[in-house]
Amino acid sequence: MRARVVGRLLTIQRVLVQHGLDDIILATHLFRPLRFVFYLSPATWFKRTQGGTRGERIRLALEGLGPIFVKFGQAISTRRDLLPADVADELAKLQDRVPPFAGSEARAIVELSYGRPVADVFETFDETPLAAASIAQVHAAKLKSGQDVVVKVLRPGVREDIERDLEVMHVLARFARDYYPEGPRLRPTEVVREYEKTIIDELDLMREAANASQLRRNFQGSELLYVPEVHWDYCRANVMVMERIHGVLIREVEELRRRGANIQRLAENGVQIFFTQVFRHNFFHADMHPGNIFVGLEDPEHPRYAAVDFGIVGTLGSRDQHYLAENFLAFFDRDYNRVARLHVDSGWVPAATRVDELESAVRTVCEPIFQKPLSEISFAQVLLRLFEIARRFQMEVQPQLFLLQKTLLQIEGLGRQLYPELDLWKTAQPILREWAAERMSGRSFAQELRRQLPDLGEAIRALPQALQTLVQHASDGRFLVRVEQAGIEELRGELRAASRRRDGTVIGATLLLGGIVWVAVGASALPGLALVGAGVVGILLARRIT
C-alpha cells in the first residue's frame, strides 16, 4: 500500500477520533483488513469524549475530511426519513454552508484567470461569498452592463485533495472486492471508477457552463424549470459567470407556505422535471440537493423551479433507458412477471435466474407500497428488502446507473419534505406512458430514419464490396474470428449480436437492391417501392440490435 494512502487513512482516523466517531470505522466490516492502521496513531490511545451534539460532530468531521466526504454528506442530507433529526439538520448545512475560503483569495484567482483586475471586468464584486460548497464558492457581482451575476470560483487545491481521496477510495474498493463476501456482486472498483469520472468532470467549470447551456436549451420556454443564462465571455476552467437567480430555497418550506406557494403542485412538478430530463431529454441534473434548487414565486399558484450548480449531469445509454422505462411501466401496472423478465433480459441478474421466484420476491416488496402517499411508506424498510432480494438473486450493481439512483433518491427526498402526501407513482405514470407512446409513434420513427439516412447511404454504397468480400472469404474457408482478450462470454454475446446485425443488414440490403432493380426495369412501381421500404426498415432495425 502506498505511503500516501496510509497517511491519508491515518488522517481520517485522527479526524474521527477528534470528533468521537472512530468507532464507526472500527465497527465496519469493510475496514477490518485495515484495522491495524487505526491503532498506529497515538490519538487512538488517548482519545476523549468530545463536546457537541452527535449531528454537529458528524458534520464537522465531514468538513474536516474534505470535498468527497462533504459531497457524501450532501447526498444523504436529503433523506430525512432515513436519518435522525439532529443528524439531518446538521448535514443540511453542508449543502451551501461549508466554511468558505478568503474572499481576497477568490478575487486573486479571478484576476489571475482573466489576466486583469476585477474592476476592469465587473462593476462590483462582493468578496463575501453568497454560498460555499465542497468544490467551489459563489460571489455576487455586477457586470459593466449593470446585469446582476454570480461568479463561481473553484476552491484552491481542491483537485489535489480529491485525487488523494480517490486513491484511497480505489484501495478501499479493492479491499471490499477481495475481502467482503458481497464484493464481486457490488462491483466496488467499477463504482469508484464511475464516481471518479463524475467528480473530476465537476472540477472543470467550462464543462459545467456547457451543461447549464444544454439544460437551459432543453427547458427553453418551459413553465416547470428555469435555468440561468451563462455569460461565456467570462468563463474559464476555474471561474464561471452566470445570471443571478432570485428566489426562495426549496428547503425553506415554511417561507414557501407563508408566501402562498402551491406546495402540492411544486412537489408534483419536481417529479415531472426528473422524468422529463431522464426519458425525454436523456440529460439530467444529477445534484438535486436542496441547496441547488430555488423556487420562483412570481405566480405562487404556479411556482417554478430554478436550478443552479450544474457540475454533475447524467445521461443513459439507449439500452439502459429502455429497460428502466419498461421497468417503471411494468411496476406501475403491477406486472411483476415483466419486471422479473426485464431484469433477466437486461443482464442485471444471472441468466439462470428463475423468473417466477424473482417475480414473487419483487411482488412481496412492492405490493404493500401502492396507493400510499410518501408519508406512509417506510423506504428504509423497502430498501432493506430490496437489498435482500439483490443478494439472494446475485443482482449486480450497475455502476452506469449510479447517478440516476442518487438523483431519484434526492428527488423523492425533496418530495417527502415538501408534500408528504405526494403520490409518486400517480404523478410519474402519465409522463412515462406519454414518452413510451411518442417513442413508438410514426413521427419518432421518421425522425430516426431521417437522422440515420447519411449513414444508411454510406452503408449502401459499401454494401456490394462488403458482400463480395464476405462471400469470397466464406467460400475460401477464411471467415474467422480471432479472440485475443479475456471475457469470452461477453465476446460471444457481442458476436451473436454482430451476427444478427449482419444477417439483418444482408436481408435488408437484398430487399432494397431488389426493389431498386424492380423499379429500374420498368415493372409495376408499387411492389418495387414496397421492397425498397422493407429494405430500409430492415437495415435500420439491424443497426439497432444490441
Described by strand count, sense and barrel closure, the largest sheet is:
5 strands, antiparallel
Rg, please? Answer: 28 Å
Number of strands: 11
State the secondary-structure class: alpha+beta
Q: How many helices does DSSP assign?
A: 24
Number of domains: 4
Q: Which percent range fits the helix content?
A: 55-70%
Oligomer: single chain
β-sheet strand percentage: 5-15%
How would you describe the shape? globular
How far apart lie the N and C ends?
Answer: 41 Å
Poorly predicted ranges: none
Average per-residue pLDDT, rounded, comes to 79
Describe the protein in words:
- This protein is of the alpha+beta class.
- The protein folds into four domains: 3-94, no CATH class; 159-199; 246-440, no CATH class; 442-544, no CATH class.
- It is 60% helix and 8% strand.
- The chain contains 24 helices and eleven strands.
- Strands 1, 2, 3, 4 and 6 form a five-stranded antiparallel β-sheet that branches. A four-stranded mixed β-sheet has the order 5-10-9-7. Strands 8-11 form a two-stranded antiparallel ribbon.
- Strand 2 (131-132) and strand 3 form a beta hairpin.
